[in-house]
What we know:
The protein has 228 residues and is of the alpha+beta class. It has helices spanning 2-18, 35-52, 59-74, 93-98, 120-150; strands at residues 79-80, 90-91, 162-165, 177-185, 191-198, 203-207, 211-213. The chain has a 5-stranded antiparallel sheet with strand order 6-5-4-3-7. Strands 1-2 form a two-stranded antiparallel sheet. The radius of gyration is 20 Å and the shape is globular.
Amino acid sequence: MLKQDATDRNHIFSWCANHEIRWKFIPPRAPHFGGLWEAAVKSAKTHLLKEIGNTNLAYEDMLTLLAQVEMCLNSRSLTPLSSEPSDLEALTPGHFLVGSNLQSVPEATLVNIPENRLNHWEQTQRHLQRIWARWYPEYLQQLHSRAVQGCKSPSKIEIGRLAVIKDDCLPPAQWPLGKIVKVHPGKDGIVRVVTLKTASSDNVVRPVVRIALLPIPNDQSDATVGDH
């Protein structure tokens, strides 16, 4: 068993070396070094406690709920996947886990249905939808500040930027993305409305308050797994 582990480890090291992949790790017992992902864990715990509280859940229900909350966190958009003008895909934590963004099947909205009318599965989905309704707008607000901090210059509403289109009625783990193709500045020169190209090839017009720009790293060519 130990020999097989050593063989697998050497294979991973060789593959990473051939692909020029460099790993950066935070020091032991220093979670504050990983503020970006630790903040996501803290946010998930906070909303989980607010939603569940002292509710008694069966082991299977709790395990299902935690797995779905984890899926939502790992589906979040981090940064544009490439600088190609036609690329409307964003890098997510799921890309590091399965090689692509995570997908989920939308469920009917159960938030306003009394709990005593729901079976175990529906009760779990109700908890998930309520957690999503709390966490989703909070994360979009974080994107605004992160876009400013992660760019070489203050974030600007300009053509070519990839953004998450805000929608208050989205089911969990759905992130509609659009690339700005046209800006509509007012008489004072301030851009308050933009036109975005979506994956469905439809152009949509949205006010800037209804979009969240994805941050662009200072140097995308030097991005590593540890940086995200």
